[in-house]
Design brief:
Shape: globular
Radius of gyration: 14 Å
Helix content: 25-40%
Strand content: 35-45%
Largest sheet: 6 strands, mixed
Length: 123
């Protein structure tokens, strides 16, 4: 994987996040992918479970803004920093995504590390 490949994948993730379209979500992940919503929680396992988990926890389009930066790519592993701002109620999150890619460019394992930014939420 190259940085531009990861950039394109994250842009696809954002499109899927904005649309909540099962086809767009599923296209991002390998058949047997694992999606960790936090590092120590049991992952959603397999594309169908990932799509179902995503839709059960979906955000509505326009409820948030998101920006990101690809920090590093090492072989099939990428690290992406993100910043998410939810409008109502106001919440700010800092994210670190650790993404392992399958040979075909789909995600094989996704781990999301996030923390709230309380100072920004207060005002």
């Amino acid at each position: 994987m190259e940085t531009q490949d990861v950039q394109r994948w994250v842009e696809g993730y954002i499109r899927a996040w904005e649309s909540n379209d099962p086809g767009e979500i599923g296209a991002l992940f390998a058949d047997d992918a694992r999606y960790f919503t936090t590092p120590y929680r049991e992952p959603w396992q397999g594309r169908d479970a990932i799509v179902a988990g995503w839709l059960d926890n979906k955000d509505e389009p326009g409820d948030y803004t998101f920006r990101f930066e690809v920090l590093a790519v090492a072989g099939d592993l990428a690290f992406v920093q993100g910043w998410t701002h939810y409008k109502e109620p106001p919440k700010h999150y800092h994210n670190l995504w650790v993404i392992r890619f399958a040979p075909d460019g789909r995600c094989a394992e996704f781990t999301e590390w996030w923390m709230t930014h309380k100072a920004m939420d207060a005002g």
